[in-house]
Amino acid sequence: MPGYEVLGSEELEEVKDVFNSGGVLFRHGFDEKRKGCYKVKAFESEFAKFLKCDYTLAVTSGTAALRVALAALDIGKGDEVITQAFTFVATVEAIIEAQATPVCVNIDNSLNINPKEIEASITNRTKAVIVVHMLGVPSKLKEVKEICRKYNLALIEDTAWGCGGKFDNKALGTYGDIGTFSFDFAKTMTTGEGGMIAFKDKVTYEKACAWHDHGHENNPNLPRWKDSRSGSGFNFRMMELQAAVGLAQLRKLPMIVSAQRKNSDLIWSYLEELDCIERREEPIGCMPTADALIFMVETEAIALKIREKLLSRRISTKILPEAITWHFAGTWDHMPELVNRHDNKLKESLRKSEIILTRSVSIPIGVELDDKLPEAVHAAIIEGIE
Ligand SMILES: Cc1ncc(COP(=O)(O)O)c(C=O)c1O
Fold first, then answer.
1. Can you give the pTM of this predicted structure?
2. pLDDT average, residue stretch 47-64
3. For ligand 1, is residue 91 a contact (CB within 6 Å)?
4. Mean pLDDT across the chain, nearest whole number?
5. Second-level CATH architecture of 3-250
6. CATH superfamily entry for domain 253-385
7. Is 90's C-beta closer than 6 angstroms to any atom of ligand 1?
8. Which pairing describes strands 166-167 and 286-287: parallel, antiparallel, or unpaired?
9. Would you give the DSSP letter of residue 41?
10. Using CB atoms within 10 A of its CB, is residue 186 exposed (0-12), middle (13-18) or buried (19+)?
11. Which residues belong to CATH 3.40.640.10 in the chain?
């Protein structure tokens, strides 16, 4: 659940600090006026420490983070990028915006990419795989990385839903070559709108820095108006107020994730004996953020019935089973690039994913937990099954 639950005086103090230090809202320059206050730079550096990663770049959104990542890898026209059938439209939109061709692969019971289905989608035009740690559960990174290594493909982790989670004791977003993060208002930590990119490699990081800033190389020996450039780019710069909020939210992130995990475990303890539900698979060695509690039932009709029973108790569901349209590639026939690549059989090619998603029920987990929630979820499931 979103960091908005814990937005408070700490975020406000950080924002005030910007105004008390000259009110410079732009990340670059105005050195005298800003009295040493550089929130975007500080946010990047604190986020890098949190991830234990050397290079991070703040951007305007998670969608921008994906777009900049593709630009930094020189992915464009004629290239193909593989991602998963269950994600938000943004992942595929970024590929299309880069003029590359998106290919979606089925998910498995982890609700993330099925590594066994990736190789069949690789062609000599494939340049990268974007895995998505959907709704807080890490992807099967080990298997996917092995495939990427075998075929010399870049591995991008769309960590929009995985911020604060781990795989093999490594922060999500740092296992592959590039990790992208979203801080929109629905995410585990939020800056309203905003994103971050984590890089393994300095050269790719430097390319991204320039590309997200109109090609500016931010040469320390030149004034900005005379700055050096090697190529054009775009503007996806984060602004100071977003980073100010981000700094306060980042300090709360471990607490948010730990509270969510505790609350999720508590709800599960009430559901354990129910053999009519199957728990979402979690890869071995991972630490999910427990953003949502997800289980699968036998049919779509039962999943919808359980949702109805949850709603009647004022408990909402999160994306599944009702709102898969924005999150299931099989329904994206408004994207001709994707439809064509799937031989005009988009829905049929992703049928396995549809079956899993429509039978899944997702309950949002927050930092706060109503004492009555675990029992209410249990009762709604029993009634829904009947
Ligand atoms: C998986 C995934 N990737 C990327 C994004 C895009 O993030 P943003 O809303 O910050 O652009 C989202 C947003 O929900 C998402 O769910």
1. 0.98
2. 98
3. yes
4. 97
5. 3-Layer(aba) Sandwich (3.40)
6. Aspartate Aminotransferase, domain 1 (3.90.1150.10)
7. yes
8. antiparallel
9. H
10. middle
11. 3-250
Q: What are phi and psi of 7, to 5 degrees?
A: -65, 135
Query: How confident is the model at residue 92, as a pLDDT?
Result: 98
Distant-in-sequence, close-in-space partners of 189: CB < 8 Å, separation ≥ 6: 3, 163, 164, 183, 246, 249, 250, 252, 253, 256
Can you tell me the distance from the alpha carbon of 2 to that of 183, in angstroms, rounded to the nearest whole number?
9
Query: How far is ligand 1, taken at its centre, from the CA of residue 95, in Å?
Result: 13
Give the distance (Å) from ligand 1 centre to CA of residue 358. Answer: 21
Ligand 1: nearest atom to the Cα of 64: 11
**Band (40; pLDDT cuts 50, 70, 90):** very high
Residue whose Cα lies nearest atom 16 of ligand 1: it is 88
Residues 278-333: tens digit of each pLDDT? 999 999 999 999 999 999 999 999 999 999 999 999 999 999 998 689 999 999 99
**DSSP H helices in 119-228:** 141-151, 202-211
Whether 346 has a pLDDT exceeding 70, the answer reads: yes
CA of 195 to the centre of ligand 1 (A): 9
Is residue 132 in contact with ligand 1, taking CB distance under 6 Å?
A: yes
Reply yes or no on whether the pLDDT at 189 is more than 70.
yes
Count the neighbouring beta carbons within 10 Å of the beta carbon of residue 4: 13
Q: Which of 188, 184, 186, 185 is nearest to 171 (CA)?
A: 188
pLDDT band at 349 (very low <50, low <70, confident <90, very high): very high
Say what percent of the chain tops pLDDT 70.
99
Query: With a 6 A CB cut-off, is 195 part of the ligand 1 pocket?
Result: yes
Quick check: 136 and 161 in contact, CB under 8 A? yes
| Any atom of ligand 1 within 6 Å of the Cβ of 2 | no
Domain with CATH 3.90.1150.10 in the chain: 253-385
Query: In the prediction, which pLDDT does 3 show?
Result: 83
Contact indicator for 59, 196 with CB cutoff of 8 Å: yes
For residue 1, name the pLDDT band (cuts at 50, 70, 90): low
